[in-house]
Each structure stands twice: as structure tokens, then as C-alpha cells.
Amino acid sequence: MQIKVAIWYMLLVTGSLLLVINVYGLSRDIRVSEFHDDYLIFPNDQPTDFNSTLIDLIRHGDESDIEYATRITHVVAKGLAHLDWLVYPNEKFNQLIPIWENYFLYFMGKLSGIPEYQRYHFANYRRSLERGIGICGDASMVMSQLLNEQNIFNKILTFPGHVVVAATFENGKQYILDADYGVVIPYPLNEFATSSREIAKLYSEAGYPLRDFVLFQRIYKENYNQWDGVGHFITNKYYFEKFAYWLKWPLPILMLLFSFISLVKIKRKNNYTY
After folding, report:
1. What burial class does residue 163 get, using C-beta atoms within 10 Å of its C-beta: 0-12 exposed, 13-18 middle, 19+ buried?
2. Is the predicted pLDDT of residue 274 greater than 60, yes or no?
3. Bridge-partner residues for 257, per DSSP?
4. Mean pLDDT confidence for 99-114
């Protein structure tokens, strides 16, 4: 009996702590207060305010699919600060998800030993933009979901060392959207290998240095893989993240409820016995 009572008290305390952590998290912002230029890959790469980004992502009434996809490629690029993902301590920019944001993801990052959780890439695009940091995979996952919301057919493409999105429009045109660099490539995939130099010039015209011209001229000649959206691209994390956010509030509430009811029953039973 004493062991059972101890277990219920442990559940009561644990549920209370988790609930307090969740409530505390409501007052916290997962985006750090400032990004010094020294930390950023690109110059002048301070991310735009989260709410401003959401407003900019709203589709204008007169925008065609191509116009919308082109515009939000730049919006997403400006909404994410580009970091060297593996350089800084994982708590500095909340790559390790804080316990007050989601305790499931926090303990996965602390205890699982899985690198993808130690430096976490959000599946949900709003959370990614809210945190305000990312690399090419993050930007492409954001783009893919935004295009899905507008019923614009797309696939995530992984080249060696880079990730972009291929969008196909009703008129049959296909554009490659690089929301990491904010570059729109009006070439279909079947022309990439033969047009890599012209495509690389688009990065130079966007203001990126010669090293990026050389990089993309090489990358876009390589083979690539295609993914049917975020759920296909990072399947396990995609569904675990949904589970983690769906359960973060019900779990402590249920722990409190069942432990309290059980302790009350035990107390009544003991009183009745005596």
C-alpha cells in the first residue's frame, strides 16, 4: 500500500511540475532577443519580426500562383537567420528545444543521443519562423507547407549539401525555389544539369559572393532526391513533433487528475478501515 501511495504522490508532483513548466512557457519567446552579425552566415541577416513575417505571407487577392511563390521565397528567407548550425552551443539559439517550450523534445535532446533532437529542426513551419533560425532544410520545409496551403504542387529536393523546393504551376511551368538564399530559379529540373552555370549566375545577381557561384554551379549538376512534403522528408520527427505538442498539456493534467482521485480513494479506504 505504501509503495502505491508513493507512486501516486510521485505522479502528483511530476504532473504539477510539468504543468507549472507549461504555464511558465506561455510567457517565454523561443526566439532569442538578438542576433549579432558575428553569429550569422550572411551579412545583415537579422530575421524579420515573426508577426510581420506572418502578415507578409498572406496571399494578395490578385496574386497568381507564380507571383505568390516568388514573393514568399524572399519573405521566408528574410524570416530566418542563417547560422552555422553546428558551431554554437545548442542552447544559445534554442536549437535544443527548451523544457518550457516542449518537455518531450527537451528530454529527447538531452537523453536520446540523437543529433537531430540535440539541434532540432521544427517540422511545423510556424514554430520554425517563430524561432527565427534555420538552414536550407528549414527554409524548404517552411516553403513546402506554405505552398501546400495554397494547393500549389511541390516537392522538396535534396542535392548534396543543399535543399530546395520544386513547385509546378497550373500552366505547366516549374520553378525551383531556394528560400534559404531567397533565390527563385525559373528553370525546370530537367534543365538543371545543362543550365547550372546560368542558374549559378542568379545567386551572383542576388548579391552572393563568387564562392556561392562556384558552389551552386557544382551542386546543381549532381543527382538529387525528391520528397513528397515534410511528412515524407522527416517522417519520424514530423509525427513525433505532432504527438509532443498534442500531449504536452493533457499529460500533466491527466497525471494530476488520476493521482488526486487515487489518493482520495486510498484515504477514504483507510478511514473506513479504521
Report:
1. buried
2. no
3. none
4. 97
User: CA-CA distance, 110 to 175, in Å (whole number)?
Assistant: 40
**3-class DSSP state of 35:** coil
Residue with cell 533560425: 133
- Whole-model pTM above 0.85? yes
Look up residue 177 and give its three cell numbers.
525555389
Three-state DSSP string of 148-205: HHCCCEEEEEEECCEEEEEEECCCCCEEEEECCCCEEECCCHHHCCCCHHHHHHHHHH
Intra-chain end-to-end CA distance of the chain, in Å: 15
Q: Are the C-beta atoms of 102 and 110 separated by less than 8 Å? A: no
User: What are 96's three cell numbers?
Assistant: 535544443
